[in-house]
């Protein structure tokens, strides 16, 4: 078991889950993990909402398109994001301790493409749409489907990614259709009739 401490001194326990190497009360051998390509083939079929995670540390600002974003808790409001350790924005989140999650509408698919095109400059990325700081200073997109401005509470490394848990300090939303990603392409939601 590990414990992590947030900036305000609050301690969180990270309890080992079934399959974690440290916890094998039965002594049974763990099953071998599946391969990367098998994992990716299955994950391609899963439809996800598309967000852009942004952060700012002083004059450094950047962001990335992300689908690995999840609501964790409503009381207190906490959201998690999984950020590749090699992403340009990762070091900025780590340094500043803040990030904003901007879920996109269907019309904002160009923003998703800009923030997922490798190593584009921040100037090129933020040229599309109007971005403004709210509480933390991380850029928030005007007209986003839903935005969550967050302060990092803790961070857990897992494989190639760091998982950041953010306490939500401001949120906005609009009643619009959200952008979806599945099987390698951006898509619209359609009602099941
Ligand atoms: C639909 C989609 C979802 C993505 N989701 C994530 C994600 O959840 N986490 C992540 O680290 N990268 C994700 N990526 C990859 C990053 O957007 C991409 O690597 C980006 O170029 C990183 O920014 P950088 O080039 O400035 O390093 C996703 C890409 C796409 C197209």
- How many distinct helices? 4
Q: Give the helix level as a range of percent.
A: 10-25%
The average pLDDT value, as a whole number, equals 91
Number of domains: 1
CATH class: Mainly Beta
Shape: globular
Q: What Rg do the Cα atoms give? A: 18 Å
List the helices and strands and how they pair.
Layout: E1 2-5, E2 11-14, H1 36-44, E3 48-49, E4 51-57, E5 60-66, E6 69-74, E7 77-84, H2 88-96, E8 98-103, H3 109-114, H4 122-126, E9 131-133, E10 139-141, E11 146-158, E12 161-173, E13 180-182, E14 185-187
Antiparallel strand pairs: 1-2, 3-13, 4-5, 4-8, 6-7, 7-12, 8-11, 9-10, 11-12, 13-14
The chain binds flavin mononucleotide (FMN).
The site of flavin mononucleotide has 17 residues, from strand 5 and strand 7.
Explain what the structure shows.
Helices cover 15% and strands 42% of the residues. The protein is built from four helices and 14 strands. The strands form four sheets. A seven-stranded antiparallel β-sheet has the order 5-4-8-11-12-7-6. It has a single domain, classed as Pnp Oxidase, Chain A. The model has no long low-confidence stretch (mean pLDDT 91). It has helices at residues 36-44, 88-96, 109-114, 122-126; strands at residues 2-5, 11-14, 48-49, 51-57, 60-66, 69-74, 77-84, 98-103, 131-133, 139-141, 146-158, 161-173, 180-182, 185-187. With 193 residues, it is an alpha+beta fold. Bound molecules: flavin mononucleotide. Flavin mononucleotide is lined by residues 50, 62, 64-68, 82-84, 87-88, 115-116, 118-119, 181.
